[in-house]
Write a structure and sequence with these properties.
The protein has 406 residues and is an alpha+beta fold. The chain folds into three domains: 2-111, 3-Layer(aba) Sandwich (Aminopeptidase), CATH 3.40.630; 135-296, Gcn5-related N-acetyltransferase (GNAT) (Aminopeptidase), CATH 3.40.630; 305-394, Nonspecific Lipid-transfer Protein, Chain A (2-Layer Sandwich), CATH 3.30.1050. It has helices at 11-19, 94-108, 169-180, 191-196, 250-261, 280-283, 306-312, 360-367, 373-378, 387-394, and strands spanning 2-5, 47-50, 56-69, 73-85, 113-117, 130-131, 134-141, 159-164, 209-214, 220-228, 239-247, 268-274, 291-297, 299-303, 319-327, 332-341, 344-349, 356-359, 383-384. A hairpin with a 2-residue loop joins strand 16 and strand 17 (344-349).
Length: 406
C-alpha cells in the first residue's frame, strides 16, 4: 500500500473513492458540480491510499480555513474532511496510515491546529482529536412561542425583511464573515464555498427564505435561513426549520428569533443549531415551551504544535500551569510550562512537576474553553494536582460555537 498526496488530476477518482464507503453516488445533475458538497475540495491538500495493484482504497483531505480563538484571535487551521476507506479494506491499517501521513504533512506546511467534524465519535480520539464545541436543537410550538418582554429593558431599533436565498448570497457572506471573527470556535467560509454553492444550506442552492436584520443605520447585521415543510396529515403539523441564525449581537438574534417564532400557518419552529447555553429558551414567556434535543459534539480540535497553539489564543486570568502532554499517535511526550500575564501566554518546555497530565486529545477539548479541565478530571481522563487553577486559566467569557459544516 502507498499513501500519497493528490493533485487536481486525481479529483474524479478521489470523489468516487470517497463516496463509496458512505454508500453514496455522485450527483451529476448539477451543472459544473455546482451545489455538490465536494466541489470546494482543495486537491493540493488531499491524501489517497493506493493498493499494491494501483487501485485507490482510501481518501482524506483538508480545507484551508481560519478559526477564531478566545480573545478574537483569528488563525489558520486545517479543516479535515473526506475521510473514508473502501468497505473491502477496512480494519487493515489504511485509515491509521492516512491520518499519520496527513498530520505529518500538515506540520510540514507549518500548521499548528487541525479540526474536523466526526461522523462517528469513537474514531478520531485515537488520532489526537478531542470534541471542543457543542450544538443542540430547540423546538418551540407556535402557540407557545411568545417572547417575554426583557426585564432589563432595551428595545431593538432595527428592521427585518424577507428575501430569497438567490437575492442575498453576497449579503449572507458578508454578515457571516463579520460574525465569525468575534465568535470563538467559528470557522471561516471562504468565498470559494459561496461561489461554488458547496456545503449545506444556506451555502447550498436549496430553496430558502432568508430573514435579514438591519441595524438602525440600515446595515445588515444578521440573518436567519429557514424553510417551511409540508403538512403532515399523521401528526397534523407544519414545521418551520431554521438552518442557522447568524447575528453580530444579541439584539439582532432576538429580532430574528421573534420573526420566525411569529410565523403564521406553522405549528412548530425548529432551530437546528444553537449553543448549549444560548439564552433563547430563557427569553420565551413559557420557559417549558422550548424542547431541547439533539445535543451533540460538533468541532473536534487537534493540536499539532502545543506551544504555538497555547500562545495563539487569548487568556482571561493570570497564572502558571505545568502541562504533561502525551501524544500517543505521533509518539511524543512533552512537559510544558504555561505562563499567562495580561492576556498573553508563554509556553516553554520544563522539567517541573506537572499540574495536569493529559492526552493531546484532552488538550484539544479544553483548548477553546468549551470543556473545563475539571470535567475531564472527574471523567478519569486527566490527572490533576490543581484542577481549580486549570479551570480558571482555560475559562473564557464566551463559550465556543461552530456552525459551519464541512
Amino acid at each position: 500500500m502507498e499513501i500519497r498526496s493528490t493533485t487536481e488530476q486525481d479529483h474524479d477518482v478521489f470523489v468516487d473513492t470517497l463516496l463509496t464507503p458512505f454508500g453514496l453516488v455522485r450527483d451529476t445533475t448539477a451543472e459544473d458540480g455546482g451545489g455538490a458538497w465536494w466541489s470546494a475540495l482543495e486537491m493540493d491538500r488531499g491524501v489517497m491510499a493506493v493498493a499494491d495493484d494501483g487501485r485507490p482504497i482510501g481518501t482524506a483531505a483538508s480545507y484551508s480555513f481560519e478559526l477564531t480563538l478566545p480573545g478574537d484571535t483569528v488563525v489558520p487551521v486545517a479543516g479535515v474532511t473526506a475521510v473514508g476507506v473502501l468497505p473491502t479494506h477496512r480494519r487493515r491499517g489504511v485509515l491509521t496510515a492516512m491520518m499519520r501521513y496527513q498530520l505529518e504533512e500538515l506540520r510540514e506546511r507549518g500548521e499548528f491546529l487541525s479540526v474536523l467534524l466526526a461522523s462517528e465519535a469513537v474514531i478520531y480520539r485515537r488520532f489526537g482529536y478531542g470534541p471542543a464545541t457543542y450544538t443542540r436543537r430547540l423546538t418551540v410550538p407556535r402557540h407557545r412561542s411568545a417572547l417575554a418582554a426583557p426585564r432589563a429593558g432595551g428595545a431593538d431599533t432595527g428592521t427585518v425583511e424577507v428575501l430569497r436565498r438567490a437575492e442575498c448570497v453576497d449579503l449572507m457572506e458578508e454578515v457571516y464573515d463579520r460574525y465569525r471573527r468575534t465568535q470563538p470556535g467559528a470557522v471561516s467560509r471562504p468565498h470559494r464555498w459561496w461561489a461554488l454553492r458547496a456545503g449545506q444550506p444556506p451555502i447550498a442552492p436549496a430553496p430558502r427564505y432568508v430573514a435579514v436584520h438591519r441595524d438602525a443605520d440600515g446595515v445588515p447585521d444578521g440573518y436567519a435561513s429557514y424553510s417551511r415543510g409540508d403538512y403532515d396529515p399523521v401528526t397534523k403539523t407544519v414545521v418551520l426549520t431554521v438552518d442557522e441564525t447568524i447575528a453580530v449581537d444579541d439584539a439582532a438574534f432576538t429580532a430574528l428569533a421573534r420573526f420566525v417564532l411569529e410565523h403564521d400557518l406553522v405549528t412548530q419552529i425548529v432551530f437546528k443549531h444553537l449553543p448549549t447555553e444560548h439564552p433563547l429558551r430563557w427569553q420565551l414567556a413559557d420557559f417549558r415551551a422550548g424542547e431541547v434535543g439533539g445535543e451533540t459534539d460538533w468541532l473536534w480540535v487537534r493540536l499539532l504544535d502545543v506551544p504555538r497553539a497555547l500562545t495563539a489564543r487569548g487568556w482571561f486570568a493570570d497564572g502558571e500551569l505545568v502541562l504533561d502532554v502525551e501524544d500517543r499517535f505521533l509518539g511524543e511526550h512533552n512537559r510544558y510550562l504555561l505562563t499567562v500575564r495580561d492576556g498573553k501566554a508563554e509556553c516553554v518546555t520544563t522539567d517541573r512537576d506537572p499540574d495536569l497530565s493529559l492526552d493531546v486529545s484532552d488538550l484539544g477539548s479544553i483548548y477553546l474553553g468549551g470543556t473545563t479541565p475539571s470535567t475531564l478530571v472527574r471523567a478519569g481522563h486527566i490527572r490533576a494536582h490543581h484542577p481549580a487553577l486549570a479551570d480558571t486559566l482555560f475559562r473564557t467569557p464566551r463559550a465556543p460555537f461552530t456552525l459551519h459544516w464541512f
